[in-house]
Design brief:
The chain has 321 residues and is an alpha/beta fold. The protein folds into 3 domains: 132 residues, Rossmann fold; 53 residues, no CATH class; 118 residues, Nucleotidyltransferase, domain 5, CATH 3.30.420. The chain has 12 helices and 14 strands. Strand 13 and strand 14 form a beta hairpin. The longest helix is centred in the last third of the chain and has 14 residues. Pfam families: CbiG_C, CbiG_N. It is an enzyme of class 3 (hydrolase).
Length: 321
């Protein structure tokens, strides 16, 4: 067995309703494929708090059940299914399970897709595996509420509500996440998912752009703005932008490269948190300057740390907290 204690960069680090965090990974492999398992461990190094390689035996899953947040089975899916099925109890408490074939062609989440398995499968794509998502929202190319929580560095408080809210995601009826600042008391029904931000503090990168801005431009613009405030990428909670920029390929690629979530705000929210720098977009299309407004809206304190900085007439950035 080998262990990687490198600090996690945030992948899969979203507490579930019981407060557990998917940061500790076990790669289970037959003896003949232990070398491949070590390659997987090396490929995932730095993304999780702990990664162990464990040699397979008949009771390996039962022996380590509860000791890890996610198992990666380097084996046929049938083996993993038969050995873990009797151990499953509750999706909010059970570890996630992903299988990957010996040729590293497919990474298939079996259980706990929204609780670590999907993210691990996506991370295994860096080794050449194709993530095979079967959870409804991911299969439809949409972000479920658990994914939205992860993007906002938050966790789901009332797990059972996600059945209704993820169905609303599939039907395009959920809309953006509403933000409520306290101290306040809130009464919600069973079909309202409550997200609570995690304890770690950080800054928010608010960003706008022209259509088609490159990944390189986003990365360079973000780095420049963060440096102006004395921060680095490790200090960033998430990237914030407008809903009309939600499909900007360069932005999404840059955020994915850094392991950051992207949170989008609708026009009404951005108007509420409009920044100090005048923007032609408000006069032309009714939207305030995206970078400052989204940085303020996303920050815990709604405070603008760095006003809008432009980069190559492609990307604008502001920093909030």
């Amino acid at each position: 067995m080998s262990t990687d204690d490198t600090k996690s960069d945030g992948h899969c680090a979203t507490p579930d309703s019981d407060g557990e965090v998917a940061e500790e990974i076990a790669i289970v492999s037959f003896e003949r494929k232990l070398e491949t398992a070590e390659e997987i461990r090396s490929g995932l190094a730095g993304r999780y708090e702990r990664i162990d390689v464990i040699e397979y035996h008949t009771d390996v899953f039962a022996e380590h059940w509860g000791a890890y947040d996610c198992f990666v089975g380097l084996m046929a899916s049938g083996i993993a299914m038969r050995k873990t099925a009797p151990l499953l109890d509750d999706k909010w408490d059970d570890p996630a399970v992903v299988v990957i074939d010996e040729e590293l062609t497919w990474a298939i989440p079996i259980t706990g897709g929204h609780h670590g398995a999907n993210q691990v499968a996506k991370d295994l794509a860096s080794l050449g595996a194709i993530p095979a998502m079967t959870t409804a929202s991911e299969a439809a190319g949409k972000r479920g509420v658990e994914a939205r929580a992860r993007a906002m560095d938050a966790h789901v408080v009332n797990g059972d509500s996600t059945v209704a809210t993820n169905l609303a995601v599939l039907d395009d009826e959920l809309g953006p996440v509403a933000r409520l600042d306290g101290p306040r008391a809130v009464l919600v029904g069973d079909d309202v998912t409550v997200l609570k931000r995690n304890e770690a503090e950080g800054v928010v990168v608010g960003t706008g752009s022209v259509s088609g801005a490159s990944r390189e431009s986003f990365l360079a613009a973000w780095e420049r703005a963060l440096a102006a405030a004395g921060y680095g990428f490790d200090d960033v909670e998430f990237v914030a932008t407008a809903t009309r920029k939600a499909d900007e390929e360069g932005l999404l690629a840059a955020a994915d490269e850094l392991g950051l979530g992207v949170v989008t705000f609708d026009r009404e929210t951005l108007l509420e948190y409009e920044g100090p720098t005048p923007s032609k977009s408000k006069r032309l299309i009714g939207w305030p300057g995206v970078s400052e407004a989204s940085a303020i809206a996303g920050g815990r304190e709604h405070e603008l740390v760095v006003e809008k900085i432009g980069y190559e007439n492609e990307v604008t950035v502001a920093i909030g907290r």
